[in-house]
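Question (not urgent): is this output format expected?
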Amino acid sequence: MSDVDRVVLGDDTPVGFIGLGNMGAPIAQRFTAWPGGLVVCDARPEATEKAVAAGARAVSSAAEVAADAALVSITVVDDDQVRSVIAGPGGILETARPGTVVAVHSTISPETAEELGRLCAEHGLAFVDAPVSGGSSAAEQGRLVFMVGADRDVFDGIRPVLSLASDMVMYAGEVGQGTRMKLARNLLHFISFTAAAEASRLAEAAGISVKKLGKVVRQTDSITGGVSAIIVRDTAAPMAADDFLVPYFEHTRGLAEKDVSLALQLAEQLGVDLPMGRIALDGIGDALGIGPGPIATTARAESTEESPT
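Got this back:
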């Protein structure tokens, strides 16, 4: 794949964008700043109007985009649409020259990414899975995060373009790894939504304004980093006893077990069910890599005693 490895996007090299929906449109808008120009395509012609007003050129098919662009970005709905854009009638494979980079920003399965990576390689193309995080407002501000799975040389070649819409272009590893990173990130995101709902129910039952609680959470998370504060190690394995982080995490575990147990007591008084809270009390020590503390150990023992034999 020497043609792919030598991909260089010069200032005079056009790039392309397919799929200008809620997420794709603001990314494409940022890409209009690329000196070599931008070629855009969407199933809805009106979706390209803003990018065209900013200097992009609109075409009617993915094949027309790939005929000109050395990098073709794709932001469509799902795996099937990505496959169609690349390999379907009027797709990228019909016209793309060897060395063209195909970058998918949609969240697809890692297996689809690897499958399309092999298909593109058969045609002398480089495939990149580069899903994003941050939402359309981050794209508009140039503050998206791209999580990129690609050959390292290809990543280095396309990074200047991605940086137009991003203040963090993260290399995740080989093809498929960008998608795996995105899935892990969104797992945390949406589990947190469930936990936020439990906290809101508890606050409401206690007579606390849910809206005010939200303001407090946003303010404190902006300072502490929220749940990301504990994702600082190179591994999720249990921590060695001599790890310098042990005293800090023991302190965190003590606070967590105390506060969660108090929240569970309040919930019991108010008749609010907190299944995520019980999981947190039981698992926070293991999550930190240091095992349960005294409060969780006692709760586990009591739960075992209460379980039917």
